[in-house]
Every structure is written in structure tokens, then in C-alpha cells.
Amino acid sequence: MERLDTELFLFLNGLHVDWLDPVMTFISGKITWLPFYLVLLFLVIKNYKKQSIIIIIGIVLLILCSDQVSSSIFKPLFERPRPCHNEAIKDLVYLPNGHCGGAYGFISSHACNTFALAVFITQLLKKYYSKIGWVMYIWAAMVAYSRIYMGVHYPGDVIVGSLVGILIGFLIVYGVKKTLSRCNDA
């Protein structure tokens, strides 16, 4: 399984083209998406009004959970080196910006966080915006793929990170929906 993951990584990471390097660096950036997050926040407040405070608390909890599960539980537990730190292949890894990141890469925090948020926002806003799921999941997939392109994650890191993020997203949105329901009943 690990060999297949490495071979798939080397194939995908090897598909780089010069014009795509700044695009993938941009997509992979953390600050890049701030305007997008502000639009999502606006949509939540616009549609949920006073109840949006519960959703914002849910988003904070969501990001804390997904980030901590990926960074503080999975990475130290599995200690799987990032491809760019793997002695056997590090000379074959293409790093568009020359940055490798921390020692361990399993699971991808970017994939976990973006897919958790994609599930959460989709579940809360789909009744108002029928196409929101397409936007959210395409965005999350682009960010997740960018991590392979950038040379810092194996496909397995991204896939498992995405699945963990999806699970966390559903768990947190379930709790938020229950809380909203109780507030409506009160």
C-alpha cells in the first residue's frame, strides 16, 4: 500500500508545469482564502441572523477539532515523513516554492480542515443555495490536490485527511443543528 502511495505521489507530483506553480502555491496558501471565508461568513449571517452566533461557534469548534486531530493526534501517532523528508525519494520530489513543512505529513491538515468546512457549510447552506456543495467540494479538492503538487503530502495523506475532515464536519454540524433546533423550540 505504501509503495503504491509513493508511486502515485511521484506520478502526480511529477506532472508539474511552470505556469501552474504559482497557481498551486496560491491555492495552497492559508491567507489566500480569507475573502472566500468572509463571503461564507456573510452568507451564514444573512441566512441565520441571530442564530449565526451558534454557527460561528460551531465553525471555531470545527476548525479546532479538525486541525488538532490532524496535527496533534495523527501526525505524532503515525510519524510518517512527508515525501520531501523521505530519504528514499526526497531528491525526486518537486517543491515549487522550496518549502517542505514539518517532519510528518499523515494526515494532511489542509485536506482535513477544508473538507470539514465543506461538509459543515454545505449542510447548513444547501437549503438556501442549491449549488453550494459543488463550490465547497471543488474548493476542498483543489486545496487537497495542491498539497500533493506542492510535494508535501502523499495521496494517502490527503485522502485520509479528507475522510477524517468529512467525519468531523458531519459530527460538528449534527451538534450545531441540534443546538439550533433546541433554540427554535425554546
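the 2nd protein, sequnce then structure:
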Amino acid sequence: MSLFLLGKKSISSQQFDKKGDRIPTTFIDTSSCHLVSIVTPEKRGYFSAKLGFCQAKKIKNPVKGELKKAGITTPLRFLREFRLEDFKENVKIISEGEKSGLQLGEVKIFTGEVINPALLVKTGDLITVTGTSKGKGFQGGMRRHGFKGRSQTHGASRDERAPGSIGMTTTPGRVFKGKRMAGRMGNDRVTIKNIEVIEVTEKGILVKGLVAGAKGGLLEIRG
């Protein structure tokens, strides 16, 4: 399977599978994912597909020119590249007239076209979804790392949520890098692998389980 798509987290819900077990589900909306351009090794030294997604109100002039060259009239908010070196055997560059595109098996996608996920993925496939987790701001050790906290009695004075000792004495006399302490939590790039596809439509993909990010957040889909 050669799959590369951009989408947004839409609806998190639940349903019952064939065994009668209740499972969480997430619908990923990919309705406005366009193929913008193809990067060839001759041009930049690597092989990738550049995709655009989500309508925007205002875009910069260089992006506007790139979309115009691809024949896309919709101003797109996000542009992302997907490296295709691992799919060289399954993905080929094609051209018809002035248009260039990609052939994935029997499926042909030309620049400027909206990518239909139903042509690239089917029910039961396993995909990889990458998103940005929700930012939770500055948090303490208990919230950020799950520390149990200190004693609330026997002389403890207002330090029930303190992390405890963080270093040594004279040797080495410093705090080691990577020590679990209070700090910024969330807003990280999170990749979840082997997510099962439950249903595929022209507008998006319904997957089993949850994916990273808030509702409406950008997701990168690979497979």
C-alpha cells in the first residue's frame, strides 16, 4: 500500500464491531487534499509529493503562485511534502500533455486534483497517523510525569506536590540532562502506528481508536 494524505481530525465517537464490543472511532476529513507538485531527484536530490490541504482566507504570494501553477484555484492553508523513496517500486511519475502526476498501481493522480482516499486505502488496512498533541501549558511533576506526590502528614509543610530530590551533593554537583521535572506539557508531534481502517469514503477515513490533536487539527496519513 502506498498512501500519503493530509486530513483533519473531525469527529471522535464510538460504535460496536461485529463481535458486539464497543470501540472508539475517529473520522479523518480529507475532502480538500490536493496534489500540488512532484519533487524529483533531478531537481532537489530526493523524490517526494507535495500536498495541500484546508481552505484559507489569505495566503502568501509565493504559495499563491505555486497553487496557480498546479491549476488550483482554492487558497490552501497547509502544504506538506511526503518522501516517496520507500515506494519507488509502486509509485511512478507520469505525464499527459502539460500535466504531470503519479501512478500508484492502477490509480493515476495528476497535479491540481483532489485525492480520493477510497482509491488508495480500503477497509481493514493499517495506517500511520501523525498529529500535534494538545498543549497543556506549564505543568508540575505529578501532572506531567505521573509522580504520586509526597506525604501529606508527619511534618510535611505545603510540599505535597513537590517532585522530591533532583540531584546529588558535591559529585557530580549538577542535575542530569533529561531529569523528569516540571515544564511545558503537550504540543508535541505524535505518531500512532498500525491504526485499523474501519470505513473509507470520498470525504475521509474512519479509523479505530483515537489520534493525536484537537478537533480540526492537521493530520498526516501514511501507509
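The longest strand covers residues 4-16. The chain is about 10% helix and 40% strand.
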